[in-house]
Structures are given as C-alpha cells and as structure tokens.
C-alpha cells in the first residue's frame, strides 16, 4: 500500500465529485467543482491519469523499455474495458428490475438504455464496440482509448518532449476545427467525451509530471505562476457563478475554440484545469494532517480508483433512481451521500484487503 | 413574385387527424412559425433539428424508418405540398439542465435550422430538478432561439401511468405549457395525447409488445402531432402577416 500522497488524494477527491455530480439535482451537487470553475472533476481525473502514467512507466530518469510500457498500458486498457462491460451489464439489469417492480417503462429509457432493450441486436454490438454508452457511463470508454494511445505519446515524449506536445496539440486542433469525433451506434449520437480532444489533458498531465520530476526551472516557473493561477481561478469562478457563457451564435469560427464545450474540451476548460493544477500543486502538504481521516479515505479512493469509480457509477445510478421514486428531501440527499461514501470506502478497503490475502497466507505458512 | 401560401391546404393539414391518432387537444397554443412561413414562401429547403432523448432516436419502432423524425419528414412533405424538409436527428441522452441546453445551443449554431423540435422535460422531471430552475432554463433557451429567429415546437414528457399522479412530474408538464403560453411557442401535448389514447384503446394500442414502449403507432401519432402543429404554426404566421398588411 502506497503512503498518502497528493496524486491519490486529488484523484480520490475527483472520484467523490464524479459520484455526486452523477446524481443530478441532488443538494450536495451544489458543492462540487463544476459550480465554481470552468472545468470539472472529469478534467481533473484525466489530467491526474496522465500524471500517474509518468510514475507507472519509470519516470524521466529510469524509463522502462518502451515495449514494456506498451504491454503494461494494453493490459490496463483491457482491464478497464472489462470493467466497462461489467458495470454496463449491472446497470442494465438494475434498470430492468426497477422497470419491472414499478411497472414503469421510463426506466428502460434511462440514459440511452433503451436501445439495449428495444434494439438488442444492434445495441449489443454497439456495447462491445463501446459505441453504445449509457449516459454517465462514458468516462471508461474514453480512458480505454486514451490508454491505447498513451504508449505512443510516452515514446515520443521520452525521445523529445516537444514532439509529444506537438502531436497532441495537432490532433486536438484538428478535432476542434473539423468537429471530428467517434460516432455512437446504433443511436445517432456521438461520444460524450471526444478522445481526440481529451487526449491533450492526458498528455499535459504526463508531460507536467515528467518535467516536475526532472526540471528545476519548471518547478520554479510553476511556483511563480501560483498567484496568477489563483487570479485565473477567481475569474473562472466569477464566470461560472454568473453563468456568463459565450453565445455560440456570436463567436467566430472555428466555434469550438470559443465556447465552453465539454465534449470537445474547449480551450477555456484546459486553461481552467491548468490553473487548478498550478494553484493546488502544493496544497496537499498543508491539508494532509488537518484533514486526518478524510485524507486517508481520499487516498484510499485514489489508490483503488478503478474499483471505486465502478462502484461509484453504480451507486450514482441507484441514487438517480431513488431520487426519481422517493419524494425530494435534503435528508435523502445527505443520506445517499453518506451511504455512497461509506460503500466506496468499503470497496477500497476490500480491494486492498484482497490483495493482501495471498501475502498473509504465504507468511503464515512460512512461520 | 412570391407564391401565395395555400391557406386551405395548411388548414386541412393542421386539423384533419387520422382516426387512429385523433385526440382532443394534440397541440397548442396558437403561435406563429414565422421563419418556416418565410422559408416556404422562398421555396427553399427547410432544416429541422429534432432534439430529444430515446423517443427521438426512435427506440421500439419496428425499423429505423418508423422512428418519429423520419416519419415527421415524410408527414410534413405529404401534408404540405411543395414543402422540402430535411430533419436532422440529434438525441441528447439523459442529461438534464445546463449541459443539455449548452449542447442544444451549439448544435443550433452549427446547423442553423429553421425549426427546432425539442422534446424536453422528462429527464428533469425524473431527476426532480427544481421547477424554478427548469422554468428559467426553458425560458432563457426559448428567448435565445427567438432572438436568433429560429422557430420552436416543444414536445412535453410522455405519459406513464405510474407518474400520472406524481406532482413533480405533472408539474414539469404544466411548467412547459405555461412557459409556452407566455412565450407564444407551440407545444405538442404528448402527455395528454398519450393519456387520451391509453384511455380509449388500452395500453396495447400504442405501446410495443412489452406494453412498455411506444410502438409504430405511437411514433406515427407523435410524428403526426408534430407535423400538424407545424402546419398550424405556419398558418398562424400567415394569418398574422396578412393582418399586419391590412
């Protein structure tokens, strides 16, 4: 088990916010990042995923052989793909049960589930191809694609840092100018998170981590930028709280550069994420001790992010349905939040306990 | 020389329902579709953006051709001779509130439709989004579409037996109808129409074999209501324009 660290901590915080945000309308949702910043927990999650890739693949001074990186990330992608299929199946079974119990067809249409129930021949194929995604179950498909793309960027970055950035920016700009995006099928939709745009956050996360571990100048620059980053966050909070969005009819072409779009990750959302990373980069060491058990819990979430994310996604869905069935109340929202956090904590504990079991068994035999 | 609109044809298109789908009040209130009238007079292709969730995508229909946007296109061209329509189907899955509206605005800016058919409210009703918040969102989006001279037809949430007595669900249906009245925007009263059809025929008539989902007849009626509402809107715009000239 890793010691508490900033990356796990913030990843845990992002997971918690994603859980809350995915129960729309609930009172706790007023407290999450998206209400106060132009970027939200999804950006944070992807940026940190990129950051941790630097650690997972040996770092700037002792990079592992590229082939190993390729196989490592391929195997991680397979693991995440498997997780996506499992949680999709569980979510569908849950919705089907609710529809039967309450004799209410609306639950079969919940967030795109309808194609599975009414057009299974096509939708099953779409599910396996990741072109049929339930609403709010669209982060893992993005992550799978990003992990398949990552080995190539990492290879480039470790050859020449600028080349990885250049490739990433080019793909990003191409997507925003041409509206290129993977389609969904059978529904005539598009991916909720466009991997062609979102890859840039993964690359930025990775490059920042490599530089922060190898370049004193980079770290000095970041430290000097902190006040500016706080000003940027202040402006972002003002814009978000007052809902001053640019009117897509009035912005110049190419439009996606000037609006605040999430699917294509408009530049303002990247700036928001960079400001956040700079402003908060050294905050962890000040909050680690005062927050005590909260720190431990968030780090446990972060260390076991896949399992916690999967359980959190299913809990969000249960939360959505609960809100649809029961009368609205603040007490209900708080109760759901507490239960959710407890179950996500239990998940993290269970995964770590399970991974310790073989070791414990072996040591018992030895003694 | 602009061709005159065939008022009699429009009036027939607006009111002569097929016997299967006939209900007492399929759409309302009286509201003009001025941009469509202009497009029709100019004899040009009319772009319709259909935005909504799975009933827009056409789930439950026996074939993609039976889904409502496809039917809407053929219905419109059949009801109003001389009309050339292209319906663009853009489902916005499951999302509520601000995010969905942001995407609607972007789609509209990019595609510059003459008309947006917006199936709205079901997800907000189910997520129990605050009524005031929903009202504000709906009103500000309608205002924005109005400023940009884009016509709108709203489709309210579908009828489900379990929710017929649910105050929040019916509240959202009422909000849509009130805002539409104030903003002078057409609404297809899907909730009431489906309830009427259910009373008349029992569920089997308009729901798929699982007794859950809209079947082809359900979609046919939905498309027909929208098409007839559009005819009524063009007619209203014509009436108002003629009145102004006098």
Give an account of the 3D structure.
The complex is a heterodimer of chains A (367) and B (246). Chain A is mainly alpha-helical and 367 residues long. Helix content of chain A is 71%, strand content 0%. Chain A is globular. The model of chain A is unreliable at 363-367 (pLDDT under 50). With 246 residues, chain B is α/β, with parallel strands linked by helices. Chain B has a single domain (3-245), classed as 3-Layer(aba) Sandwich (Rossmann fold), CATH 3.40.50. Chain B contains ten helices and six strands. In chain B, strands 1-6-5-4-2-3 form a six-stranded mixed sheet, with helices on both faces. In chain B, helix 4 (68-79) packs across helix 10 (216-245) and helix 7 (131-147) runs parallel beside helix 8. The radius of gyration of chain B is 17 Å and the shape is globular. Chain A binds chain B through residues 24-25, 99, 102-106, 108-112, 114-115, 117-119, 134-136, 179, 187-189, 192, 243, 245, 247-249, 255, 259-263, 320, 323-324, 328, and chain B through 53-55, 57, 59-60, 89-91, 93-99, 102-103, 105-106, 108-110, 122, 126-130, 144, 148, 158, 160-163, 168, 207-208, 210, 212-213.
Summarize the amount of helix of chain A as a percent range.
Answer: over 70%
Can you tell me the CATH architecture of chain B? 3-Layer(aba) Sandwich
Q: How many whole angstroms does the radius of gyration of chain B measure?
A: 17 Å
Structural class of chain A: mainly alpha
H and E string of chain A: HHHHHHHHHHHHHH
């Amino acid at each position: 088990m890793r010691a508490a660290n900033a990356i796990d901590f913030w990843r845990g915080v992002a997971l918690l916010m994603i859980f809350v945000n995915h129960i729309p309308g609930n009172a706790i949702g007023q407290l999450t990042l998206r209400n106060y910043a132009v970027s939200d927990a999804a950006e944070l999650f992807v940026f940190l995923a990129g950051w941790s890739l630097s650690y997972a693949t040996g770092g700037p001074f002792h990079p592992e052989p590229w082939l190993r990186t390729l196989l490592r990330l391929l195997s991680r992608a397979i693991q995440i793909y498997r997780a996506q299929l499992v949680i999709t199946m569980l979510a569908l079974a849950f919705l089907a049960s609710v529809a039967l119990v309450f004799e209410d067809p609306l639950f079969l249409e919940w967030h795109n589930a309808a194609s599975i129930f009414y057009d299974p021949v096509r939708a099953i194929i779409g599910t396996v191809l990741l072109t049929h995604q339930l609403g709010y179950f669209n982060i893992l498909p993005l992550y799978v694609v990003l992990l398949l793309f990552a080995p190539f960027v990492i290879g480039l970055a470790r050859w020449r840092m600028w080349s990885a950035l250049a490739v990433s920016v080019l793909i990003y700009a191409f997507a925003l100018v041409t509206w290129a995006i993977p389609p969904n099928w059978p529904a005539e939709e598009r991916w909720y998170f466009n991997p062609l745009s979102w890859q840039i956050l993964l690359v930025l996360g990775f490059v920042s981590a490599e530089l922060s571990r190898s370049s004193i100048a980079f770290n000095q620059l970041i430290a000097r930028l902190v006040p500016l980053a706080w000003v940027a966050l202040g402006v972002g909070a003002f814009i978000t709280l007052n809902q001053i969005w640019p009117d897509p009819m009035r912005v110049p072409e190419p439009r996606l550069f000037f609006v605040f779009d999430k699917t294509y990750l408009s530049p303002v959302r990247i700036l928001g994420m960079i400001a956040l990373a700079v402003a908060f980069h050294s905050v962890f060491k000040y909050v680690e001790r005062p927050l005590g058990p909260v720190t431990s819990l968030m780090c446990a979430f972060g260390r076991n992010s896949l399992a916690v994310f999967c359980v959190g996604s299913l809990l969000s869905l249960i939360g959505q349905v609960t809100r649809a069935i029961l009368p609205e109340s603040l007490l209900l929202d708080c109760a759901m939040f507490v239960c959710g956090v407890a179950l996500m904590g239990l998940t993290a504990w269970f995964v770590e306990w399970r991974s310790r079991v073989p070791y414990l068994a072996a040591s018992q035999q030895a003694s | 020389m602009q061709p005159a609109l065939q008022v009699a044809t429009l009036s027939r298109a607006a009111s002569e329902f097929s016997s299967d789908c006939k209900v007492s009040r399929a759409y309302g209130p009286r509201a003009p579709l001025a941009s469509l009238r202009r497009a029709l007079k100019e004899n040009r292709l009319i772009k319709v953006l259909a935005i909504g969730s799975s009933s827009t995508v056409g789930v439950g229909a026996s074939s993609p051709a039976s889904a409502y946007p496809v039917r809407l296109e053929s219905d419109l061209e059949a009801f109003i001779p001389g009309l050339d329509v292209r319906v663009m189907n853009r489902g916005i899955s499951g999302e509520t509130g601000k995010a969905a509206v942001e995407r609607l605005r972007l789609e509209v800016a990019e595609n510059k439709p003459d008309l947006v058919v917006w199936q709205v409210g079901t997800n907000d009703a189910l997520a129990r989004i605050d009524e005031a918040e929903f009202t504000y969102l709906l009103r500000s989006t309608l205002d924005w579409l109005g400023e940009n001279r884009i016509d709108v037809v709203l489709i309210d949430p579908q009828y489900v037996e379990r929710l017929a007595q649910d105050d929040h669900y019916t509240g959202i249906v009422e909000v849509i109808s009130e805002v539409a009245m104030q903003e002078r925007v057409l609404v297809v009263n899907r909730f009431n129409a489906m309830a009427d059809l259910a009373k008349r025929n029992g569920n089997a008539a308009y729901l798929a074999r699982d007794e859950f989902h809209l079947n082809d007849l359900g979609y046919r009626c939905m498309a027909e209501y929208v098409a007839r509402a559009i005819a009524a809107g063009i007619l209203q715009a014509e009436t108002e324009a003629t009145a102004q000239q006098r």
